Amino acid sequence: MVLRLSKLTDYAVVVMARLARDGALPEGRVQTAPGLAQATGIAEPTVAKVLKILGQAGLVEGLRGARGGYRLTRPLAAVPLSEVIVAVDGPIALTACVDGGQGQCEAQSICAVRGRWDPVNDAIRRALSDITLADLAGPARCGSAPVFAQLVAE
Amino acid sequence: MVLRLSKLTDYAVVVMARLARDGALPEGRVQTAPGLAQATGIAEPTVAKVLKILGQAGLVEGLRGARGGYRLTRPLAAVPLSEVIVAVDGPIALTACVDGGQGQCEAQSICAVRGRWDPVNDAIRRALSDITLADLAGPARCGSAPVFAQLVAE
DNA sequence: CCTAAATAGGACCAATGGGGTCCCCTTTGA
DNA sequence: TCAAAGGGGACCCCATTGGTCCTATTTAGG
């Protein structure tokens, strides 16, 4: 399967959806990484890793020390999916030799499609920017997963 | 980098662009895998592999025997990029637990975003379907690769 | 009829990169 | 002063993919 979103990004969306339960800055209460791990079913070290990455990107805020934890810096509706993807997986592009492509492509002198992927990349970035985490975690609609309500709607 | 298009798909586009030089069915002349390998700079076994895959998908036609070779079944303008991607890399989807997702997701009972990726996937598929190989290999515009003209425009 | 050239199909090996874990340090409330 | 929690990074493992090769089949040409 192509266009494989990394698992880390998937986890990031789930974790942020769970974080949304307790709100965002400045009133939002924090949740700890172990707590989020238990709530989401994702292994604790992995949740911690995801939260660190999201923290560096400014998507969540971490409060250190006892009684510390994480909370969103923005409501889900203000977070485009593309931003999460970029934070976790890096730039959104279809090939390595794309967008300027100063990185050396061994077949550079003979490559027939060099520099032509830009419109494709732009289209995909636009699609991913138009969708926010609120769209993904939004109003309950999940036939097979009743727990969904506990995680997000509640 | 996310959304990484496989190298095989990249090769497929290059090879098909080269195949377009000699036309498509029914008048088009065939080109051999070794010849295409030399013309594109891609290793011969790899070119052969790509052509086999494209043949199974019906994007190229292979003629066996001496004086055999490959030719396009359609002009480049009639081949959406999405079709090449699907042929080489399989279905276009962002996550494994997507689009029905009967495949067992270990966190299925607790996953907050189950079934919500469909609009994202649809948007991406649409973007990839709106672009044809002719758009990629189209009129010459390649500052750093003059050989491009020999491959496609000539 | 025989040979050479070419595709068809699949098996096989190697390497890259990402998933996942763990360690140590810093911070901070009780 | 201690315990709880985040911050940052190093590390290993393995699944996926890129790439190669081998064999069978087909067909033009002498």
Low-confidence stretches of chain A: 96-112, 139-154
CATH class of the domain at 7-90 and 133-153 in chain A: Mainly Alpha
Chain pair sharing the greatest interface: A-B, 59 and 60 residues
Identify the CATH architecture of the domain at 7-90 and 133-153 in chain A.
Orthogonal Bundle
CATH fold assignment of the domain at 7-90 and 133-153 in chain A = Arc Repressor Mutant, subunit A
Classified in CATH, the superfamily of the domain at 7-90 and 133-153 in chain A is Winged helix-like DNA-binding domain superfamily/Winged helix DNA-binding domain
Q: How many alpha or pi helices of chain A?
A: 7
Strand order within the widest sheet of chain A?
Answer: 1-2
Distance between the termini of chain A: 34 Å
Shape of chain A: elongated
Helix content bin of chain A: 40-55%
N-to-C order of helices and strands of chain A: HHHEEHHHH
Number of strands of chain A: 2
Work out the strand percent of chain A. 5-15%
Oligomer: homodimer
